[in-house]
Amino acid sequence: MKRTAISCALALGTIMTSAFTPAYAGSGPIKVVLAEEADLLEPCMATRSNIGRIIMENVSETLTELDVRSNNGVMPRLAERWEQNADGSWRFHLRQGVKFSDGSGFDAKDVKHSFDRIMSDKNACESRRYFGGMKVTPSIVDDYTIDFKADPVQPILPLLMTLVTIVPEETPLEFIREPVGTGPYKLTNWTPGQQIVLSGRDDYWGTKPEVTQATYLFRADPAVRAAMVQAGEADLSPSISQLDATNPKTDFSYLDSETVYLRLDHNIAPLNDVRVRRALNLAIDRQAFLGTLVPESAVLATAIVPPTTLGWNKDVKVFPFDPDGAKKLLEQAKADGVKVDTPITVIARSANFPNVTEIMEAIQQQLQDVGFKVDLKFVEVAEHERYYSKPFAKDRGPQIVAAMHDNSKGDPSFSMFFKYASEGTQSGFSDPKVDDLIKRASAAVGDERANLWSELIAYLHDDVVADVLLFHMVGFARVSERLDFKPTIATNSMLQLSEIKIK
């Protein structure tokens, strides 16, 4: 079946992201320098930022994608259109004439296998966590039509499908090393510790990007990354520090969907006492970080999702800096037999964001100033995941995990279940009211959905004191003058090469 003019226009609109294409546009290779190396290039792990910014929508595509550049909502990608059936399920009509990078054709069997693979217990796919609290069943209608039925009914299922990367039906359930996808690029070189190279595909179904090849380099120091772009050794660094963002011709700030926070494990004393969790929050001078180690335009956090998210609760207030109040709470807890002087380990991810070392050392000192005994431990991304996600080690002591959480999708459902539900893969506690609010909000629509999320945000912050929320971040990127590219809220987690134009 030939694509209609409307289908072609939709496909083109999905890929074109600049407001204009300069008359002097060209094509060629580029070099991108990142802070963290990818430990995997597994498609179902592309929701993790160090993997997604390389392969998401470059090598591995999804049925739908969220247009954050032009605010057009959920747009077609491998699905040309979709509608909700009378029973609440969703029907997706797939694009025809698409091939994977191995030459095999794309159809509904690949979509079903990709989803079943994500949900399989034979791997640890990160994108599975976004479907927690629901049962989703894919069923093939014909070669290019597939239904997804969710229980409870999911009104935002097309948005959830922006996280399901599509692989060939033949892909094993276990993790793979070299991704095979339908995207405009394929993996042509991966030399661990040195570089990853993606090369353009001549048989890509969509518009051919101007970037013909992308070489990814990895440098932990943000100053080094900025200097490499300035010296012409790289063309783009999507993350540099504010201190290095000194050239208005090449350096751009952008709204970041990342929230920096400390995940608390309520299961282990003394963190199982709410007074101790409040004391942790009161001990930190969040405001002092703004304009120093954290960009001045960053926003102090009261939720795990940024203020642009549905259900944002403006009435929830940031914990004040009150070291005396923190000391009193610890004294009260100690008088009741809580062992508040038990050493607590704070685990942070190396090179997770600019100034992470200095920020975490300052927080360690502030916690020690009010009486906490705190050890600080830095680990690489793969080891960090073992502390961050279940199953947690049974012999662990009290732990706090420093992390960043990305939610650029505009709805709390991409955060709340796996962060806070009793069965959530990164949840550090169990609370029946939290579970109920998440279940009801996920199935609701309109004002009811927003109100339930708002109620949950307040309850987590004020009553549960679920964690220590710190900052909604602002990112800074350095872009070579030979490129036409502006970062967006999604840049830190997904860097689509097709959005980059070459002068």
UniProtKB/TrEMBL annotation:
Belongs to the bacterial solute-binding protein 5 family. One of its GO terms (molecular function) is peptide transmembrane transporter activity. Residues 1-25 form the signal peptide. Its main location: periplasm. CDD domains: PBP2_NikA_DppA_OppA_like_12 (cd08491). Transmembrane segments: none annotated. One of its GO terms (cellular component) is ATP-binding cassette (ABC) transporter complex. This is Peptide ABC transporter substrate-binding protein. It comes from Rhizobium rhizogenes (Agrobacterium rhizogenes). InterPro entries: Peptide/Ni-bd, SBP_5, SBP_5_dom. One of its GO terms (biological process) is peptide transport. It comes from the Bacteria. Pfam families: SBP_bac_5 (PF00496). Residues 74-418 form the Solute-binding protein family domain. Keywords: Signal. It is found in: Periplasm. The keyword Transferase does not apply. The lineage of its organism: Bacteria, Pseudomonadati, Pseudomonadota, Alphaproteobacteria, Hyphomicrobiales.
